[in-house]
Amino acid sequence: MASELRDKFENHMILRDLSENTRDAYIYHVKELARFYMRSPDQLTNDEIQKFLLHLIGEHHYAWSSTNQAFSAFRLFYADLLKWNKTRFHIPPRPKMKQLPVVWSVEEVVAIIDSTRNLKHRALLMTTYTAGLRVSEVVRLRPWHIESKRMLIRVDQGKGKKDRYTLLSEKTLETLKDYWRAYKPGEWLFSGKDRGKPMPIGTAQRICYNAKKRSGITRGKGIHTLRHCFATHLIDAGVDVYTVKRMMGHASLSTTAKYVHVSKDKISKIVSPFDLHSGS
In the chain, what percentage of residues exceed pLDDT 90? Predict the structure, then answer.
């Protein structure tokens, strides 16, 4: 995407009062679209845009949330910024899927993290899981966000433009110390090839997919599954849903409550009515 068009899109999103994380994610999706065709995004056809979305779903196995983010980015870019009408740009509406998240067991999470061949990748996945971070949040961590004396991680301007604190596990802190000594990160805790910029979201997603593939685990999807695992495993361990809500940065308790339904301990302790019947 040409710098002039990118700046125009960036300014448009600033005027819409979108968060920095959202702006970065939307620009990333439009840049990936342009890179896919090696053409400026304003020169593409609607059929090409839809073909790219099918590529994300079919080839990259994007989760609903990631796919929906790309949809939203393209709608804002083409319909809102470029003012393309429905005859030139139209994406069929995607109904929100009401599915319970698929989560890995603690043993599976450990297997995925242990399969990483790179200290930076290991630190990234450990931090994502043990703090319950969104991928957009973990790639934008700065070194000072790791508050080791308080054993907390600060998340600045997460979803909904809210700051919050979440857990810093002792094992993650030790790994981060090893990572710090080996990589000497600068402004960003996890930078991309350009040390002056945060790691691209797509890079973080590929790191998790590759680790999952090496571990031999086929259930679940991408890096966002680690966030689902964090919430579910805390509820399994007896942490109350209100505390989990606060650490996850959810606006509504109902969003957090879905993890109660996938908590294996809650379900496994229930006795079937058939088993309670003395004559069975």
Answer: 54
Question: Which pLDDT tens digit goes with each residue over 77-98?
Answer: 999 999 999 888 887 766 665 6
What's the per-residue H, E or C state across 123-138? HHHHHHHHHCCCHHHH
Residue 134 appears among annotated catalytic residues: yes
* Cα distances (angstroms) measured from residue 124 to each of 56, 155, 208: 23, 15, 9
pTM of the model: 0.66
Confirm whether 60 is a catalytic residue: no
Domains of the chain with CATH codes: 3-81 (1.10.150.130), 106-266 (1.10.443.10)
Find the catalytic residue in 224, 228, 233, 245: 224
* Active-site residue identified among 164, 227, 228, 245: 227
- Residue 183's CB: how many other CB atoms inside 10 A? 15
